[in-house]
Design goal:
Elements: H1 11-14, H2 17-32, H3 38-43, H4 58-69, E1 75-77, E2 85-87, H5 92-96, H6 99-102, H7 107-110, H8 127-135, H9 143-151, H10 153-159, H11 168-171, H12 190-201, H13 205-213, H14 215-223, H15 231-235, H16 246-260, H17 263-269, H18 275-281, H19 283-294, H20 305-309, H21 327-335, H22 361-397, H23 402-409, H24 414-424
Antiparallel strand pairs: 1-2
This protein binds heme C (9 copies).
Length: 425
């Protein structure tokens, strides 16, 4: 296996000669079939070259492609509109820094079958058609990601004819892809956390606009703060589900709780971590929690976190125009579902506070009263019952020791036992 030095990442496959032969066979079949199955594809992810489509020296073949494509003025038009004009320029410097070149993947690893010729025999009707067609290449190696995407809203939209929905290369610019997750800890960097929202903005600009004004968005965009949620913390990246289903709604408090019950994170901002506890134990949250467990698709009209706080426009609670600490703002929120609510209505609710002597003293003292009252009544009663029971047991068995030791030696016949009892009395 002279190739070991060249393909170190293949080592696990080489251990068995038979398996290696099979692998080659499957690879060749996969290559001619156009695209291997996703599950298979992901298992060979570490080695782009094992596809057999990448030559020994990607840099050399890339140079042949780049002879034409490094020309900045190079362009073509797919379709009839001015906007269908496409630059065919590929920036060699940016490409040199991609994770794919690092992994030994050449241009033709994605552009399978392309030859260094003037034009490649494709005739796309639009820019979008070209993008959708070429993006298919990613799934050959990233089968798992592809499967997730196929389960998500974007693929669903495309299947329904809305070709504006996102595919791989809309979110990952193919000629500049760098590593996204840290190789050691598997985490997304702070810079990426921020750029994710910018990327979604390309197509969801109205939502981004709202988000950028929110307490979360401001911290992300203005301070690159990775503690606050970016779009994907609430929606996921690949298997994005429709957020307007009842199942998503009922599960949503858990999404907020992931951060808002985290002591380490919330301590930095002086925020309470009791927001989930108090929500779940109040009349609104209890029902939502039960619904989520028992019938996640059933309609529920009880509020979840975002009915009160907003979704993409969540503000600080002391924000003068929208903050919920301001009574008029809060009242408006209650009125969405309690249309008859008047100025004092919100007072009927203890918010996220665990009542204490200062906030909600009446609730606090009533709770306190019950905390003492109930043990004070039940406690002595319990003791009385126990004492009585103990006494009667004592009376019953406090007869000679014999009775308890003797069964070991000689289990007494029942009759005799009765006699004994009779004796002691
Ligand atoms: C001799 C110049 C030349 C070379 C070398 C060349 N191309 Fe092209 N390429 C073109 C032209 C011209 C077009 C525009 C075709 C059109 O108008 O549709 C193009 C278009 C493309 C496209 C757009 C999609 C398509 O199918 O039209 C891709 C992708 C591409 N080339 C990849 C490559 C790769 C990969 C290589 C190296 C194997 C390569 N090219 C080598 C001239 C070249
Ligand atoms: C990781 C896969 C991948 C690699 C590697 C790759 N491409 Fe592409 N390329 C794509 C995809 C996907 C598209 C369609 C993207 C789009 O429409 O935005 C594309 C589009 C193109 C286009 C059409 C213009 C455009 O930007 O849409 C050209 C030309 C091109 N690639 C040439 C190259 C050359 C030359 C190389 C090597 C230096 C290369 N590609 C390497 C995936 C790749
Ligand atoms: C021929 C196989 C192959 C194709 C095709 C391919 N990739 Fe990759 N990709 C790889 C390999 C190998 C790596 C490096 C994995 C590693 O080192 O962890 C990689 C890495 C990545 C990463 C960085 C992963 C990380 O952990 O940060 C992204 C993002 C990515 N690819 C996206 C794409 C997209 C988008 C396409 C299509 C435009 C594509 N890939 C096409 C093989 C491929
Ligand atoms: C290339 C454009 C594009 C990009 C980039 C994009 N989306 Fe979308 N997305 C769409 C389209 C088109 C729809 C279909 C519904 C619509 O028109 O709003 C959609 C639908 C959705 C939906 C479902 C809502 C509905 O109306 O069905 C969610 C959630 C969503 N996208 C989240 C995201 C997130 C999060 C990101 C960034 C990680 C993102 N999208 C990036 C185009 C895009
Ligand atoms: C709507 C935007 C969007 C689309 C579409 C998308 N991705 Fe991603 N992808 C992301 C984001 C954001 C991340 C950052 C990590 C995360 O949040 O999971 C990521 C991470 C990745 C990674 C590296 C981390 C990992 O978990 O492996 C790979 C590889 C990848 N995507 C490949 C793909 C492929 C292949 C496709 C198409 C089948 C695709 N992505 C489609 C947004 C997208
Ligand atoms: C704190 C969590 C959170 C964050 C951060 C977030 N979303 Fe949402 N998003 C939601 C929830 C919850 C819904 C469901 C709203 C509903 O029921 O109407 C939603 C709905 C959506 C929808 C579909 C409904 C609509 O209003 O069109 C899209 C598209 C969307 N979000 C995209 C984004 C994008 C893009 C970003 C980043 C700029 C983002 N979201 C950030 C929680 C979030
Ligand atoms: C990824 C973690 C994360 C997620 C998910 C998250 N948050 Fe936050 N949230 C934060 C952080 C961190 C802050 C503090 C930001 C600051 O002060 O700059 C914050 C601030 C807030 C505030 C403002 C508190 C104040 O008065 O200062 C509210 C309200 C809020 N979040 C509600 C929600 C709701 C509702 C959800 C779910 C729909 C949610 N958050 C999801 C991390 C998160
Ligand atoms: C019925 C409306 C309502 C619901 C439901 C609700 N909240 Fe609140 N939330 C409020 C109000 C009102 C305040 C302001 C409390 C005050 O200062 O009077 C608040 C305050 C907060 C704060 C700021 C806490 C602080 O320390 O300043 C956070 C964070 C928060 N809520 C998150 C959540 C999360 C997460 C959920 C869901 C698990 C949720 N809220 C459910 C109304 C609600
Ligand atoms: C998304 C809708 C929604 C919002 C917003 C909402 N509630 Fe409710 N609330 C309900 C539902 C539904 C019930 C249950 C009614 C029933 O079972 O009879 C309820 C029950 C109550 C009850 C129990 C007594 C009763 O009337 O049955 C109180 C008190 C209450 N809500 C206070 C509030 C306050 C205060 C606010 C604003 C901070 C608020 N609610 C916001 C939907 C909502």
């Amino acid at each position: 296996m002279g190739s070991r030095g060249v393909y170190p990442h293949r080592r696990p496959f080489v251990s068995s000669g038979g398996f290696f032969f099979l692998l080659i066979l499957v690879l060749i079949m996969g290559f001619f079939a156009g695209a291997p199955t996703p599950a298979f594809a992901s298992s060979v992810l570490p080695s782009a070259r094992s596809f057999g489509v990448v030559p020994q020296n990607p840099v050399e073949t890339d140079a042949e492609c780049l002879k034409c494509h490094k020309n900045q003025a190079m362009s073509t038009t797919w379709g009839i509109l001015e906007s269908d004009k496409v630059s065919l320029y590929v920036d060699p410097t940016a490409y040199n820094n991609t994770v794919h070149l690092e992994a030994g993947l050449a241009c033709i690893g994605c552009h399978v079958g392309y030859k260094p010729e003037s034009g490649h025999g494709n005739n796309f009707n639009s820019r979008r058609e070209a993008t959708l067609t070429m993006s298919d290449a990613c799934g050959r190696c990233h089968g798992e990601r592809q499967e997730e995407v196929m389960d998500g809203v974007h693929a669903e939209q495309i299947a329904a004819g809305n070709i504006a929905a996102a595919v791989c290369s809309d979110c990952h610019s193919p000629h500049t892809i760098t590593r996204i997750k840290d190789k050691d800890n598997g985490l997304v960097s702070a810079a990426t956390h921020f750029s994710i929202a910018k990327n979604c903005e390309k197509c969801h600009s109205a939502i981004y606009e709202k988000y950028s004004q929110s307490v979360h968005g401001q911290a992300n965009i203005e301070q690159n703060n990775p503690d606050v949620p970016t779009c994907t913390n609430c929606h996921g990246a690949h298997n994005i589900e429709d957020p307007r289903t009842m199942a998503y709604r009922l599960r949503s408090p858990q999404i907020c709780a992931k951060c808002h019950t985290n002591l380490d994170v919330m301590a930095k901002y002086g925020l309470s971590t009791e927001v989930m506890n108090t929500y779940v134990s109040d009349f609104h949250g209890t029902t939502v929690t039960i619904f989520e467990k028992v019938s996640p698709d059933a309609e529920s009209n009880k509020p979840v976190c975002y009915d009160c706080h907003g979704i993409h426009d969540i503000s600080r609670t002391d924000d003068p125009t929208k903050g919920l600490e301001i009574k008029q703002n809060l009242l408006k929120t209650c009125q969405k579902c309690h249309p008859d609510a008047t100025a004092n209505f919100p007072d009927s609710w203890t918010s996220h506070y665990i009542p204490d002597a200062e906030k909600y003293p009446s609730v606090y003292y009533i709770n306190l009263f019950y905390q003492f009252f109930i043990p004070a009544v039940l406690g002595p009663m319990g003791i009385l019952v126990l004492l009585d029971f103990g006494r009667s047991m004592l009376d019953k068995f406090s007869s000679p020791k014999r009775k308890t030791t003797s069964p070991k030696v000689n289990p007494m016949p029942k009759k005799k036992e009765e006699d004994n009892d009779g004796e002691t009395k």
